[in-house]
Amino acid sequence: MPDIRLPVDGTVFTLRAGILCIRDGKLLVVSGDGFDFRYLPGGAVRTGEGSAQAAAREWTEETGLPPGPLRLAGVVENFFTLNGQTCHEIGFFYRMDAPEHWPGTLTTLLDQFDQRLEWLPLAELDTARVSPAVIRELLDLPPGEVRHLVQRG
Q1: Phi then psi dihedrals of residue 152, to 5 deg
Q2: What are the Nudix hydrolase domain coordinates in residue numbering (predicted)?
Q3: Which of 7, 14, 20, 46 is 20 to 30 Å from the Cα of 75, by its Cα?
Q4: Which residues are CB-contacts of 138 (< 8 A; sequence separation ≥ 6)?
Q5: Mean pLDDT computed over 36-59
Q6: Which helix (H) or strand (E) holds 38?
Q7: What does the pLDDT average to over 22-44?
Q8: Are 151 and 138 in contact, with CB atoms under 8 Å apart?
Q9: What are residue 94's DSSP bridge partners?
Q10: Is this prediction's pTM over 0.70?
C-alpha cells in the first residue's frame, strides 16, 4: 500500500500519524543532521490504513518495539514549507506511555539512519523548534479530550 502523499496543484498533501510519547518530563522527538527542527515519531498513513494502525506500524518500524496503548489526543491541520515545497498535512496525534525498557540515550531510527530519537525536556518545548508547533496544546489536554488544531507556518 502506498503512502498518502500526493502532489495537488503545487502543494504536497500528506496524511500523517504521530506519537506523543512522554517519560520523566520529556517528550520523545526525532532530529537529524541538516534539520533545523524536530518532529514527532510517526509517518505517512498508507491507503486503506487507519491512523492508529499507521501510528503503531510507524512506531515499530522506527524503534523495533511494539507500541503501547494509543489514545487519540488531536488532529492537526499543518500548513508549512519544507525545502521550498508548500505542504498541507493532516496529522492524527496519539498519546502513548513510554516503554519501561526504553534506552535513555539517543537512538538511531531503524528506518532512517540519518535521523535519531532523543528525549526533549518539556520545559524546553516552548523554545525548541518542534513541528507541529501546537504540540504543547495537545500535551495539555486532559485524558479523554480530543482537540482539532490548525497550524500555519
Answers
A1: -120, 125
A2: 12-143
A3: 7
A4: 20, 73, 74, 76, 93, 147, 149
A5: 96
A6: strand 38-39
A7: 90
A8: no
A9: 19, 72
A10: yes
